[in-house]
Model the fold of this input.
Amino acid sequence: MVRKRGVDLLVVGHVTRDEIAGGVRLGGAASYAARAAARLGYETALVTVAPPDDPLLEPLRHAPHLSLHCLPSEVMTTFALAYAAGQRQLWLRRRARPLVPGDIPPEWRRPRVAYVGPIAGECDLAFAQGLGASFLGAGIQGWLRRTSEDGRVEPAQLTETPHAEMPLPFDVAIVSAEDHPDAEAAARRLARTVAITRGARGARLIAETECLEIPAAPAREVDPTGAGDVFGVVLTLELAQGKSLAGAGRAAAAAAARVVEGPGLGTLSGSER
Done:
């Protein structure tokens, strides 16, 4: 089902089928970001690629404040996940087709705020910039990955970077320190404001004139999956509204803390906004 209406936020990226501990669940940076923004009361649109009738999409089809536009694919991008000593390991099992500019419904083009969350290189920088957003955030993990022969996901260098004379493509870029040993340098090649998330150790925010350490908000951790994606989208939304870097960082940390308190979005609620 596609519900198209005016939106506060456009989110783009593959949703995923996550295989973990013998079960499956809905995942993907775009899924977490879109569901979190909608739960916080923002009118949110999500454009993704997956089998439209897959039961895993059910939380996206009927969520209040969320409009889903799912382009058909025979497969859903699928990861196997495992946690060892607090570190996440990933294997890419299947990948849906890439996103292309024509996938964006005309009424959602040139949004005020957009958040791009690639997880398997399903779109490139030109696609993201072509959204025409007034304020553009990105979780850049999907551009810092490669897969080995057995599908294991490994860190990789950016395959494309903006021309030195061109403006940086993003207003804010978010990446986990666990995703890449050179995460900060990679992000700074893409955005004026950078967030390096570090789980329970909080986040480092770097802008043109300031560098801040944002502590993690108190939480009872049950499942950390998706917390960094929620931190990224909330930081993007807060900065787009003109909030200070410190204020936006605290709001993002508070939202991420609620997410780790359970599977999915944990205990996140609209009261966090």
Q: What stands out?
A: The two ends are 27 Å apart (CA to CA). The first helix runs from residue 29 to 39. The CA atoms of residues 9 and 93 lie 30 Å apart. The first strand starts at residue 9 and ends at 12.
